[in-house]
Design brief:
The complex is a heterodimer of chains A (about 270) and B (about 250). Chain A is about 75% helix and about 0% strand. The longest helix of chain A is centred in the middle third of the chain and has 30 residues. Chain A is mainly α and about 270 residues long. Chain A has 11 helices and no strands. By secondary structure, chain B is α/β, with parallel strands linked by helices. The chains are: A mainly alpha (about 270), B alpha/beta (about 250).
Chain lengths: ~270, ~250
Amino acid sequence: MSLLDDFLIRAALAGLGVALAAAPLGCFVVWRRMAYFGDATAHAAILGVALSLAFQTSVFAGVLAVALTMALTVSTLSGRGHAVDTLLGVMAHSALALGLVAVSFIDGVRIDLMAYLFGDILSVSRTDLLVIWGGSTLVLGLLGWRWSALLTATLNPDLAWSAGINPTREQRILTIALALVVAVAIKVVGVLLIAAMLIVPAAAARNLSTTPERMALMAAVIGGFSALGGLAIAWRFDTPAGPSIVSLAALVFTLTALIPMRQNARS
Amino acid sequence: MTLISLQDMSVSLAGQTVLRGVNLSIKKGEIVTIVGPNGSGKSTLLKAIIGAVTPSAGMVTATPGLVIGYVPQKLHIDQTLPLTVRRFLSLPRRVDDDRAMRALERTGAAALAGRQMSALSGGQFQRVLLARALLHDPDILILDEATQGLDQPGSAAFYRLIEELRAELGCAVIMVSHELHVVMAASDRVICLNGHVCCEGEPEHVASAPEYRALFGTGTQGALALYRHEHNHAHDHDHTHQHAHDHEAAT
């Protein structure tokens, strides 16, 4: 295991782990227009950080619990006809603000807030790596298992019902996957850039794809490339790693956006 | 043979009663059309049949193993979702090329297999949706305003296709429509709905029923008069028959 002694190798593996799970999930976030939903869940994570420090549990567990609560609350409330964008606006920023206030109460431990807001990929430990790859595998497993049902429910809830699929259940599975990705990504890109890891590679993959499967695959490739490339840039030019990863993904998006959409392309 | 029956079924959505005490049974091979003003619970009735809404009272029973082919009212496919017609047909269950092409040919959409769903015209889209509903040899086709967005010749052709399919496959058809004049001619049975079943029977019978005319106008029962009412769903709220019609109840 001497390879994992190198912090750069650990960082690369962590970035790759997050990117691979975030990309296909990000496709659903894009298709279902849940971008703001992803943002809200991620912002709530800082509250999870504060709580886990206060109760001295693992950050992963704290973030997962809060992100899950947040995501389930929003998806339940929005199902009851509340205006979703207002609801998300209220909950996302309240959770972020509340989290920042809560963190200030925790003295004794001097915590580096920046590390949670923008990630601290270079300090990833072996345990973190295990958590990240465990979470990512779980997310990919969930998505792979429910793929057809999730796609059908994304197209139209009634179409799903008529095929014996409960769209509410599928929505819940996406919600759980989202909370998992937020919890594993916080160390890598931080609270403020998690949504970018979900959306940017998926959006960049759109113009290169004629089927949903290809889009998910391309998003994973672009996400993985951005993670490794961003890390290399950060190392070479001494820039912050998380933002460098997202910047590179944004560059790929810009390049693919120049390709005219292949609307009528035959697959 | 009865495929689906509703017994005294009521549905409430968000605290509002949308359907009250609906009794209905669909037999093998018949074309049943549901007409009614906006907000009369037509779509809700179909949703209850496919299981998308749960009745608050009463029962929906279907023959075990019943295969339903469902054509939704509207299907918006987001520009961000790349999806070919062929791939769409394999959702959620994979179908082989042979079966997919046969269904597309049946609805005149064979040339569209490689096209992106979001690039189809309204008429092409409806044909693809219908092809998808036919894939698994349905016992019953359920169509919710399937001709929305089609012009008159387009929807007339669509209904002719439905009749042909019924003759060919022997499936039952239940559909909701605004286009009274076209639909009435193609149906074996018409159900006039307004929160409850106002009247039902053969098209001629329903068209002359006082309950129907209270909803769709008191003028002549000619096709033209029916057609005119399609554009204006103003109803005579002072009509005298004894049912309470709460038009605002459902949306």
